[in-house]
Design a protein that fits this description.
By secondary structure, the chain is mostly helical. The chain has 6 domains: 26 residues, no CATH class; 155 residues, no CATH class; 97 residues, no CATH class; 86 residues; 111 residues; 124 residues. Strand 13 and strand 14 form a beta hairpin. Helix 7 packs antiparallel against helix 8 and helix 29 runs parallel beside helix 31. The two termini are 83 Å apart.
Length: 851
């Protein structure tokens, strides 16, 4: 319900009830864009360099992010805290710091468990935000598991309970950093919130998949895509759990992530079992299709073979996962037998296009078939090979074949023996280089494998040729890698794959037989390995000592882990035990230095980001820790921070001490133990200005509170001093140029009376005596002025003289009443007598005459 009062805008029922009951917060609802804009435009009038149009545009963007394009009242859809929170952050950056600190966030109809931000999920969730006693329109929050976790994340990292009220929060003051008159959230809070949002999204994606029932998917491409999806979710969750940033509290999410990973792996395994059941049928079908498709017109078809090989290659990387072990083995057999089938098809094609029988390829194929493992396509291959055997010429004499074999082996044997002799020299003398081309030894291997059937010791010749070729290639590779120089002074040593190169050298060297050359290579490889390790340690030394960025070392993420790995690597080096101990000791000292500086950085971050003051013992402890660190840019930067912290503390201590002295003096004056001095006002004012210029923090607040209390006492002292100081300036202006009274003259008498009444109430003290002397002097001055006024008066003007006589009587009675209070009382009494006799004034009051 809404109603209209007069010609004013309507108010809703809630607002009317709030106004009637005096609940101002509820009565000042900012319903709609116009109310929202007008309120914040007025609130943000401090923003420098931003005109009204820019303010309105910023506010419109924020309003749309929170409520959408519709007005708040018309928008009934739910919102995600993930979308709302960036808008609230933008609003925080625009507002004054005091307004931000006073913001309220209320979650309606919720049970809150402690201060962990863990909410019991209700069916409906509403957020109310209050700024400067004004209430923004209510926001309906989406409360799915994911958005619920995001909301808990925002509460945990950015807010605290306000006044212990259930569901009522305010921004955590320790998470706010001052930026002039504005504030912003600390980087740690921002990073933790962002990480929490990522975790919530990843957990939601996993839950959606786990809650889906196991599907019967027969298409292999879809199976592979699903496996990749599982793997990505697992990788995302694992990565989020293992974040090494000190600003991110991963332990808050570890249990949830572990539980979801377990559920995800279980669901994945169930889905895999379904895939494997279906894929068993696929393998059976594939075997049948090979038997039907490969043999066309009595010949094996190369195109059909290529098609099957392409099909198998698409899921080869996933065979171990998608198929049972037996089916996986059958597929590997099919792949191998398809290669043989292609050779058979190639031989069939040669028979059709050549007039002579290809005896050597046929013989080689027979050998390959005999060596091959029996598999699903064995019957098909044997059938095709037997068909070729039927047309093989039977008139080739065995003697002719053996003669051809001897001739071929003779052509191979001479260069092979020469190569073996050269290789023996190379192995025994590390000083010479190989001049054998690898293509030459590779040709020997080819010749050996193509020796015709019935060649004596054919397998031995093949083995000898392969050994020479392998040793020649190995030596050539090692010599090339060593000659390329592996410059260990290269500053990109951590990025360049030198470890891979050294590992390759080590692997190659193990392939050589025991020899002088192998031993020489090993010494060079060990030297390179040690040099690389030393260079890595040097670089990590530079990293550890490098200038920190924003209070954090660029090496802090993995320095300890990397240095520990290097320390373990030292044990593998072939150097003396003493050398290993020195090496390990140096690395251990680097680890200690890094951990010490990282600890100092963490402590400094606590004080700098929290804008806090450190006690002297803390500063001394930090400086003591840094004194043991060697000279480096990182140390210099940290010492600057420590010095700044010390300076900050010294400024506070100095102001505290000077204030204590001034406070003591003001208190002494207020208690009439000391006399007043205007220097106290100047000193106090200067100290107050210095205190206000100090960085924020609780000590500053305490100091300013103490100063405020002292300032009240100072004002009381000044008020008393001002009371006794006011008559003097008026007396100076009490006469006109001709000596007659000015308008200021009548104002003097009530001031003298007020000071006199106050003086009588003051305790005896040096300060009271000073005030009495000042009042006595002013009274004497007033008598002298009265004398001059009488003398300057018009001759025979009775009215003028009557007024002066009244003033005389006032002063006479005043002086009489102050007997014993004014130090110059006798002087004043004599002066009164002189004025009486000189002007024949009455000596008695009217009351005295009728007494």
């Amino acid at each position: 319900m809404s109603m209209t009062i007069g010609t004013t805008s309507g108010v809703n029922e809630l607002q009317l009830q709030a106004m009637l009951t005096g609940q101002l917060k509820e009565a000042t609802h900012l319903e709609g864009w116009e109310a929202f804009k007008n309120f914040f435009i007025k609130l943000l009038n401090h923003l420098p360099g931003m005109n009204l149009e820019d303010k309105e545009k910023n506010l419109r963007d924020i309003y749309n992010m929170i409520y959408g394009e519709k007005t708040a009242a018309a928008s009934d859809k739910t919102h995600s805290i993930e979308t709302l929170w960036p808008a609230i952050e933008r609003l925080i950056h625009l507002m004054e710091g005091d307004d931000v600190r006073a913001m309220e966030f209320e979650l309606i109809s919720h049970n809150v468990s402690g201060m962990t931000g863990q909410l019991h999920t209700p069916g409906h969730l509403t957020l109310v935000i209050r700024v400067d006693d004004h209430t923004l329109p209510e926001i309906a929050l989406s409360n799915s598991d994911m958005h619920h976790e995001m909301l808990s994340n925002v509460l945990t990292h950015n807010m605290t309970s306000k006044d212990g009220a259930p569901g009522l929060y305010q921004l955590d003051q320790e998470k706010l950093i001052s930026r002039g008159s504005s504030v912003e959230l600390a980087p740690a809070a921002v990073m933790s919130t962002s990480h929490g949002f990522e975790v919530a999204r990843a957990l939601e994606a996993s839950r959606v998949l786990v809650q889906t029932s196991v599907k019967e998917i027969s298409n292999l491409d879809e199976q592979i895509a699903q496996l990749d999806h599982y793997q990505k979710l697992i990788a995302d969750l694992t990565q989020l759990r293992s974040v090494q940033d000190p600003d991110v509290r991963t332990e808050l999410h570890s249990e949830f992530i572990d539980n979801e990973l377990a559920a995800l792996n279980t669901h994945r395994q169930q889905q895999l079992e379904s895939h494997q059941r279906l894929n068993h049928e696929f393998v059976d079908t594939l075997v049948e299709e090979c038997a039907d498709d490969l043999l066309q017109g009595g010949l094996l078809c190369k195109d059909a073979i290529n098609t099957k090989q392409s099909l198998l290659s698409t899921f080869t990387p996933h065979m171990d996962t998608l198929f049972h072990e037996a089916d996986n083995h059958r597929l590997q057999q099919i792949q191998s037998q398809l290669s043989l089938a292609y050779k058979v098809a190639d031989l069939q094609a040669q028979l059709q296009s050549s007039e002579s029988f290809p005896q050597e390829p046929f013989s080689n194929l027979q050998v390959a078939m005999r060596q091959a493992e029996t598999g699903p396509l064995t019957t098909l291959l044997n059938t095709a090979l037997n068909a070729i055997r039927q047309i093989a010429p039977h008139n080739i004499a065995r003697e002719e074949i053996e003669a051809q074999a001897r001739h071929a082996s003779g052509r191979l044997l001479q260069p092979l023996e020469e190569a073996e002799t050269t290789m023996a020299k190379l192995l025994s003398d590390p000083g010479i280089r190989s001049d054998m081309d690898s293509k030459t030894t590779e040709k020997m291997v080819t010749q050996a494998t193509r020796l015709p059937p019935f060649t004596p010791d054919k397998m031995t010749l093949i083995s000898r040729a392969e050994t020479v070729h392998q040793q020649n290639v190995t030596i050539s590779k090692i010599d090339r890698l060593l000659s390329e120089g592996l410059t260990l002074a290269d500053h990109n040593v951590l990025d360049f794959p030198r470890e891979r190169v050294i590992y390759e050298l080590q692997t190659l060297n193990t392939q050589l037989p025991e020899s002088q050359r192998k031993s020489s290579y090993q010494l060079q490889i060990d030297e390179l390995d040690e040099g690389l390790l030393r260079r890595k340690v040097d670089i990590w030394q530079e990293h550890v000592g490098s200038m920190p960025e924003a209070g954090r070392s660029p090496a802090s993420g993995n320095a300890v882990q990397a240095l520990t790995a290097l320390k373990d690597k030292v044990q593998q080096l072939t150097i003396s035990g003493q050398g290993k101990s020195e090496f390990k000791g140096f690395i251990a000292s680097l680890i200690t230095q890094h951990q010490v500086m990282e600890s100092v950085e963490a402590t400094l971050r606590h004080y700098i980001e929290g804008n806090k003051y450190a006690i002297k013992d803390v500063v001394n402890d930090l400086a003591g820790k840094m004194s043991a660190i060697g000279d480096c840019p990182r140390k210099h930067a940290l010492m600057e921070h420590i010095t700044a912290l010390q300076t900050k503390n010294n400024e506070l201590d100095t102001i505290y001490k000077e204030f204590a002295d001034v406070q003591q003096k003001i208190t002494a004056v207020a208690r009439f133990h000391a006399t007043w001095s205007e220097d106290l006002v100047k000193t106090f004012s200067n100290l107050k200005t210095q205190a206000q210029d100090l960085p924020g923090g609780e000590p500053k607040k305490t100091l300013l509170r103490n100063m405020a209390a002292t300032e009240i006492k100072l004002l009381e002292v000044q008020h008393l001093e001002r009371m006794f100081s006011e008559p003097g300036p008026l007396l100076a202006k009490a006469t006109e140029a001709n000596g007659t009274p000015s308008p200021h003259w009548p104002q003097v008498f009530p001031l003298l009376d007020q000071a006199a009444a106050t003086l009588k109430q003051l305790p005896e003290s040096t300060r009271t005596s000073g005030l009495a002397t000042r009042l006595g002097n002013d009274t004497n001055n007033a008598l002298n002025l009265l004398k001059g006024m009488i003398a300057a008066g018009p001759e025979g003007d009775k009215k003028y003289m009557a007024a002066r006589e009244d003033e005389y009587k006032h002063l006479r009675d005043f002086i009489s009443s102050m007997a014993g209070y004014l130090p110059n009382g006798n002087v004043l009494t004599n002066a009164v007598k002189d004025i009486k006799h000189e002007n024949n004034f009455s000596s008695r009051t009217l009351r005295e005459r009728f007494a």
